[in-house]
């Protein structure tokens, strides 16, 4: 993997289009409205296997031809979807055994989507047949620019008999014999030692963490293999100028997002986020639903994780317009927030913004998931704002070719640790119940801290970390946060230590260096490997059911700063204390320490920082981020990246009030089309956003990270 790779596709803008769902189709009107809104891409065909093949072996393929012809005539490219995630009734009636089991012997009921066993031979036979039929008919059409295989893969963990048999084969290949498995999983515990593979129990009642992690890894590989299988099929019909992708829905239970995109041409994800007050930078709200991000930090997390899929620009295949949620929740965006959100995702590396979807559906589960047009099909406020955004993006043209988002801080992302913590979380709620979101509670706290310190972040998957040398990592990423890196090999931890020795500033957070590659607690003083480099160790740790105040000792800490959910009882061997708990008992232990190591530094954070403590920490780590020269009001952020040798700045006002920013040097307003001098006072209306480009080549400030001094 080359982590500076860039895919060649230009900035695209559009929506999913479902003519088959229209109660009264007016194709020419729809396409004309799209073109007037500067659409240059639509996505079609992925949801309707029963339309492509209404009866077993009987195909109806001609209904899409007018859509592709009309799109091509208007210069609109088409992403063609394979329909394998929506199984037709005739197929499951003929082969009821293809249902995916949600538990051993308990099939998922029909009437949803993705309720199928993707490994079943009967399903694969019919899936291949419909894929080949659709691709043979339309892959060569000049409107088709790419193919999306399946949709949001990894929706469920499969418990089918053949899945479990495959799991046993996978274990045999991985461990060789049962005695090796017994040792690796610690099956002496509770008398779980097995003498033969046939004695391994099904996963339903499992309480062994090592088994659970292996089960999740196997499920990830099944989904990766399924998507790769489809990609190989469709490539047999495609031109060289077309691409293959799938739309990743982050944190699905059976998807390893970095793995699944490796066999594709272009990474893509679906980016659903809260709007209205959720986009107020000063607010901290709960998620509207578990799959919807909240806050500006949540929106940027989507963008940063999209870029991290392959460390290159990515497609947003779905994102919200009108209210997006179930029948009982309705939250449409405030005026300006559509443009604001799209430009924020583009600032973090998106090369396409595609909305779900064109027309609001009149039936089905997603009746109130609003599209560009409302139920009346009469263009209104949403269409007008989408059109205005389309005008902005069309005006940008090729100005973002080769765009690479800036990053002041890199954050290590471990899917193994995340999935392990989903089953065995280390954090608890105030009532003592487990927090299945523990991994993201920890990692996202550091990610949000970067935003609130006025800096920018980059996620780096553990697998991508493995492909870097320590010195290369130190050069590319001067500050690296490794928090909640629980499932880690000794080699991975050793590279973290070597990264600091090579000149990087390593920030170690809770649970890193405690587990090994099998999710076993390490037989070592914690944190293993990285602890001596940081000059600290600990024996005990505390669950925090409420935040605990933190005060500065060697760094500036604002009033009200706190640690939350977790506190290591840190013992200092040879380190400087930067912050300490303001608590009668925990005050014995530092919350944050730092120590020089080789040419770099190791800072240890023994708690999950709240917004205030996190921002203070990042300001200490990165005193001069890329956007440091910008003077702006509190609700204003400056996101940036470099394209065509020019730094481009995306300036956002995340508030309901007018706000201001001052240009540190001359810039071109890429939206207004006018040059602005240094010291120009920008006025941003509520939820406003600007795109500005430097008039001189970028000269990054020499960012003094705290590798130099405390």
From TrEMBL:
Taxonomic superkingdom: Bacteria
Segments forming domain Glycoside hydrolase family 42 N-terminal: 17-393
Catalytic activity as recorded in UniProt: Hydrolysis of terminal non-reducing beta-D-galactose residues in beta-D-galactosides
A biological process from GO: carbohydrate metabolic process
Cellular component terms (Gene Ontology): beta-galactosidase complex
Enzyme Commission code(s) on record: 3.2.1.23
Enzyme class at the top of the EC tree: hydrolase
Secreted recorded as keyword: no
This protein's UniProt keywords: Glycosidase, Hydrolase, Metal-binding, Zinc
Classification via CDD domains: A4_beta-galactosidase_middle_domain
Keyword Metal-binding: yes
Domain Beta-galactosidase trimerisation: 407-621
MF GO annotations: beta-galactosidase activity; metal ion binding
InterPro entries: Beta_galactosidase_Trimer, Class_I_gatase-like, GH, Glyco_hydro_42, Glyco_hydro_42_N
Family as reported in the entry's similarity comment: Belongs to the glycosyl hydrolase 42 family.
Protein name: beta-galactosidase
